[in-house]
Amino acid sequence: MSVHDLYLLAPEISLAALAAVLVLVDLVVRNKTVLPILAVLGLAVPLIFSLMLWFDLSSAESMQMHGMFNTLVVDKFSLFFKFLLIAAAGVVILSSTDYVQKFARFQAEYYALLLFATTGMMLLASTTELITIYISLELTALPIAALAAFMRDTRSTESGMKFLILSAISSAILLYGMVIVYGFTGTTSLPQIAQQIGSIDLIGGTPFGSNALLFGIVLMIAGFGFKVASVPFQMWAPDVYEGSPTPVTQFLSVASKAAGFAVILRVFYIAFPADTLSLDWSATFAILSALSMSIGNLVAIRQNNIKRMMGYSTVAHAGYILVGLAAVAARTPGAESSIGPAGVLFYLGGFAATNLAAFSAIIAISNRINSDQIDDYAGMARRAPILAAVLTLSMISLTGIPPAVGFWAKIYLFGAAVEANLEWLVVIGVVNSVISAYYYLRVVKAMFLSDPTSEEPVSFALPMQFAVAIGFIGTLIFGIYPTPLLNFARAAAGVLLS
Q1: Is residue 449 in a domain?
Q2: What are phi and psi of 412, to 5 degrees?
Q3: Which of 245, 286, 307, 442 has its CA 20 to 30 A from that of 494?
Q4: Under a CB-based contact definition with an 8 Å cutoff, are residues 397 and 475 in contact?
Q5: Structural domain of 359
Q6: Looking at the domain assignment, is residue 192 inside a domain?
């Protein structure tokens, strides 16, 4: 390992080191309030390293820097997700400051597991080789399984075990698919896989020229489908979201989904050439998209627990994001081929801001009322007007109503589908957005139109105020002026075309 390799890995190394430092500090410090402060301030180090890498790329002729025997790449695509994941980790830590009193003795371990999981996700966005992809996935999955069971009560333990078992099964399926792809192409490098597939003569119109290779890629889609909770691989999400500590649910809904789509875009855009990644794969992703949107939204209508409702909501939003992947697969020569991946990145950025705001408000309210039932949010506009306003904006954004960022995210993503001649999928997406308004606005109705069960105001600490403010500002500002986020997404997505 060279010094250059260490420099490329500096954000991940510094983040893992920060996790280790938190555990060591916990051993010698009596005042545990220093831990979240140290964790949030410590995130400045990987952020600075990421910024340095971004400026190095901007000043260099090459759009990519390779390291670790060409298994790792640093480009604007991977850095987009590093920035997103660092921001998400910071907001989740701020949101956790009150909640961690429920397991006060294990605060350091909690924050360390969050940071280790974030490290794996950041690696996932930079890997260009199947073995390192799998290792990064496991580095992400194991800390999340521990975090899901962190409350150590019946529901939390059940969610942790369910996530661990289903994650192991999906990882086995994914690994089996990778083995088949390796066995057929003779390489685990994504660019070299593309070269091998491109040199194969198609046999009888079979995609990729081999049913065995086709089967391997289908298994990889199934494995990745679990990571992003798309139908029919979503069975874990509602139960794990409901049983996990609420900040962990917040982390799962944003960071885990972003990392999952990062690796999917990297694999299916780089490893499989444009002439083979055609209508067959467009139809596959389009069908998964339609099913995820429809099932996620329809089942969410029946939910009374807000965390479970948000779980099915993320299934639906995985479907919306898959619209962009379908557009990538259906791209035609001469079309603006970056519009699909750019739409996915823009949507992920807007979705992250919205969900961070929503869950920050949910955590603040639920901590006070000791309930996750939607009916118990009655009259919250009187008890906590700021939190009610933030949660309302989040619900509006998730529905796709202006002036929130969710409106522009859907417009841009659906525009990519129209460019790819997937108008039927856009119609399904619009219909599902209308359906989703029912259960999102149900929360708003409870807060503003129902009588409160108590007149006691809902207060929340300063760190939580920062978390709520960050999510709210991101959701509103990018809704009013989306150009910076959109340009950032375009710059990051353009790397995939090089």
Answers
A1: yes
A2: -70, -40
A3: 286
A4: yes
A5: 278-498
A6: no
User: pLDDT tens-digit profile of 216-259?
Assistant: 888 988 888 888 888 888 888 888 998 899 999 999 999 988 99
Cis peptide before 232 (omega within 30 of 0): yes
Tens-place pLDDT, residues 206-220: 555 577 888 888 898
Residue 183 within a domain: no
Q: How many angstroms separate the CA atoms of 497 and 160, rounded?
A: 39
User: What is the tally of structural domains in the chain?
Assistant: 1
- Torsion sign, CA atoms 410, 76, 485, 16: positive
Mutual angle of helices 10-28 and 44-59, in 10-degree steps:
170
Cα separation, 465 vs 175, whole angstroms: 42
d(CA 144, CA 164): 9
266-323: per-residue pLDDT in tens? Answer: 888 887 755 555 556 778 888 999 999 999 999 999 999 999 999 999 999 999 999 9
Phi, psi angle pair for 157, to nearest 5°? -65, -40
Taking the C-alpha atoms of residue 365 and residue 380, their distance in angstroms, rounded to an integer, is: 9
Residues ≥6 apart with Cβ < 8 Å to 497? 337, 338
